[in-house]
Amino acid sequence: SAVISQKPSRDICQRGTSLTIQCQVDSQVTMMFWYRQQPGQSLTLIATANQGSEATYESGFVIDKFPISRPNLTFSTLTVSNMSPEDSSIYLCSVELWEGLGTDTQYFGPGTRLTVL
Amino acid sequence: GQQLNQSPQSMFIQEGEDVSMNCTSSSIFNTWLWYKQDPGEGPVLLIALYKAGELTSNGRLTAQFGITRKDSFLNISASIPSDVGIYFCAGQLIPPTSGTYKYIFGTGTRLKVLA
Questions:
Q1: Largest CB tally within 10 Å, which of A86, A97, A100, B65?
Q2: Rounded-to-10 torsion of CA B26, A40, A43, A22
Q3: Does A43 reach chain B within 8 Å, measured CB to CB?
Q4: Chain B contacts in chain A segment 76-95 (CB below 8 A)
């Protein structure tokens, strides 16, 4: 398994501002993911962040709104830009680990609870 | 975004009862993962399934990877109050062209256990 931490754990922000969320994992991983979980909903993939390449965004998510950095194999950041109340969600990072031949799994951080006023 | 059909959406059960929930899709998946999420926390991995037909247990939890690779179920036996939470399935989707694997999540099952 992996130990994943996120900062901040929660924040309350004003509309129009930006927030950068950090994700740190205790081992080197190739693939990291960023998800959004709106209140009472399931998880929706925002983008996949591989070290050394540009993030791959899912339909409905764009780099200008959610820029991602992946400077090394243990760290990533997600920025929520020009925030509006509709961006109020839990933002989760996750990593994919290979635990044996054909046995990859995905582990999650504790999440960042964002409220935009 | 794309999501898996998960049922039931929510359930109230008595302590000691068995619980069953499932996920279905029109897509074929490589891997099925089952998670539990408590309020204010990230999802915690419960069981991982890698082969069609595979049946795996983890304590009181049992999950199976459907033969068609399009579905999976999770059973909880003899439920206890700490089983309360939201349970999500996730399927690893193979992209149509060479690209990144990604996981699609179910809509969630909210479980409430009555003592």
A1: B65
A2: 180
A3: yes
A4: 92
Q: Is the dihedral of CA B82, B110, B22, B106 positive or negative?
A: negative
Measured distance CA(A64)–CA(B110) in Å, rounded: 35
Cα separation of A55 and A28, whole Å? 17
Task: Compute the distance between CA of residue B115 and CA of residue B64 in angstroms, rounded to an integer.
Answer: 28
Beta-bridge mates of residue B18: none
B33-86, pLDDT tens digit by residue? Answer: 999 999 889 999 999 999 999 999 999 999 999 999 999 999 999 999 999 999
Partners of B2 in the beta sheet?
A: none
- Option in B40, B50, B107 nearest A42 (CB): B107
**Encoding tokens for residue A114?**
């964002």
Q: What is the pLDDT of residues B67-80, one digit of tens each?
A: 999 999 999 999 99
* Contact A45/B at CB under 8 A: yes
Phi, psi dihedrals of residue B13, rounded to the nearest 5° = -135, 160
